[in-house]
UniProtKB/TrEMBL annotation:
Record protein name field: Tyrosine recombinase XerC
Subunit-level organization: Forms a cyclic heterotetrameric complex composed of two molecules of XerC and two molecules of XerD.
Gene Ontology molecular functions: DNA binding; tyrosine-based site-specific recombinase activity
Pfam family, one: Phage_int_SAM_1
Compartments, as annotated in UniProt: Cytoplasm
Gene Ontology CC, one term: cytoplasm
PROSITE patterns: CB, TYR_RECOMBINASE
Family to which the UniProt record says this protein belongs: Belongs to the 'phage' integrase family. XerC subfamily.
Source species of the chain: Acidithiobacillus ferrooxidans (Thiobacillus ferrooxidans)
Amino acid sequence: MLIETAIAQFIETLRQGGRVSPATISAYSRDLHAWARFALQRGQTEIAQMDRGSLRAYLLAERSRGVSVRSLRRHFAALRALYRHLQQDAPELRNPVSGLAMPRAEQRLPDWLTVDQARLLMQPAISDTEAAPQDFTGLRDQLILELLYSSALRVSELAGLNLGDLDPHAGTVRVLGKGRKERIVPVGQPAWAALRAYLAARPAVAASDEPALFVNRRGQRLTVRSIQVRVKKLGDARLGQPLHPHTLRHSAASHLLQSSGDLRAVQEYLGHAGIGTTAIYTHMDYQQLAQVYDQAHPRSRRGDQDMKHFEGKA
């Protein structure tokens, strides 16, 4: 049986059955005809020609052109429903969907900033929602941003910092992370400059025996919630959008990974116990990843024609 014929009969059965919504029928029809066109390009016109490899190739091709995992799962469901329908009349028909894993749901990643956005965020500015940069609050908030981005700290780690955790000679900060696991992370020069300015203003607010690095105007340790509120307002003032502290952590890790390509170093930087967590919380630009692959992987050599084919789809 021709693939197009099988699809037409299946869609008509759904319409006559009255148990499937018109929206689902329309989606199934659209997805299955897209699959039929892909099969035709591969010289496959008969249902009997299809095998598991053909279906896998179709799903991978759809993913490579930007189709979301959610849409791929719908494509998969349409193919599975089609073959169930066909096997009712032809039980001997090979079902290539059987045993084929459904595409896994996408995991939502935290928001992140571009390098230009991060640079703009770090520029002190005066507005109705932000303290003057030379005011105690402004100096403190500037340091909050610098440390979150420079050292990719969790907001709880930032709130828990004490004065003794900073080592200006080594250019590092000691952080107590999840599970009370300690790690040492680098601190950039702009953050050190912001720290010196903040420390000059801090004695007028905090008692000499107060260990907390970040304090409020009453000289008490700044809470996680207070830091979140300040970062949100700073995002509104400088970027025109609300900002969460974790966005800066994710942005810092992403920018470091894009520059170095060293996933293990980023794992240490973030304090992740396993490399899998780092792979989820960071991302690489696809073109950069493809370039690294072409340069480094022994099985990456593709002909000029293949390269032009992929570049034309970019």
